[in-house]
Write a structure and sequence with these properties.
Helix content is 36%, strand content 27%. The protein is of the alpha+beta class and 203 residues long. The N and C termini lie far apart (41 Å).
Length: 203
């Protein structure tokens, strides 16, 4: 359950509690502030003190902002046996019969998580999480619906307009009892542009 910095990564033990991770980020001078916000929104305090980082990631549905943020950050998992590293967005085919021992969060990326919620404490109706690296690489994840958050972009030199269109396309069949697909498509496009502007500091 240890949490420690390892070079450009934060190594989080699989059984580390969400509240412990949140407090580590806050105590470390505000590391990944939008990830800290995602943790606060994920669960109330008493449940954050009981829920583990790996367990939350592996059981999360599409409304999990923490899972969406970690997917945008290209979070990796250490799998046992063998100490293999697997990307969170490739987990479905690589976790059969395996145990997770560590969660690896990059610290050299900027992260922006934008949401629309009915109330400040609600799960998102729609979310867009953008991560950007000094190399110019960026990843966009859309959430708020479905069984898992969706990685919709991973590339270099992508414009805010291209990101918005990718987010819009990802929501074409995103309607459910909470919001229509049309509403989510437009909100995802807007939120992705807003996140893009934050991580790249554009006007």
């Amino acid at each position: 359950d240890a949490i420690r910095r390892r070079g450009a990564f934060l190594e989080v033990g699989a059984t580390a509690k969400l509240e412990a991770l949140l407090q580590f980020l806050v105590a470390s001078g505000g590391l990944l502030p939008d990830l800290a916000t995602a943790l606060r929104l994920e669960l109330p305090l008493n449940l954050r003190q009981a829920a583990s980082a790996a367990g939350t990631l592996l059981s999360a549905n599409g409304r999990s902002l923490f899972s969406a943020a970690c997917l945008a950050l290209d979070t990796h998992l250490t799998l046992l046996p063998g100490e293999e590293r697997a990307s969170l967005d490739m987990q479905a085919g690589s976790l059969s019969g395996r145990l997770v021992s560590q969660v690896w969060l990059p610290l050299d990326a900027r992260l922006a998580c934008e949401t629309v919620r009915r109330t400040p404490a609600d799960f998102p109706l729609v979310s867009a999480c953008v991560a950007a690296w000094p190399s110019g690489r960026a990843r966009l994840v859309v959430g708020g619906f479905g069984s898992r958050p969706r990685l919709v972009l991973d590339g270099v030199g992508v414009t805010p307009e291209e990101a918005a269109q990718a987010a819009r396309n990802a929501c074409q069949e995103a309607g459910d009892d909470f919001a229509s697909a049309e509403y989510r498509a437009e909100m995802a496009a807007l939120l992705s542009q807003r996140g893009w502007q934050r991580v790249f500091k554009t006007d």
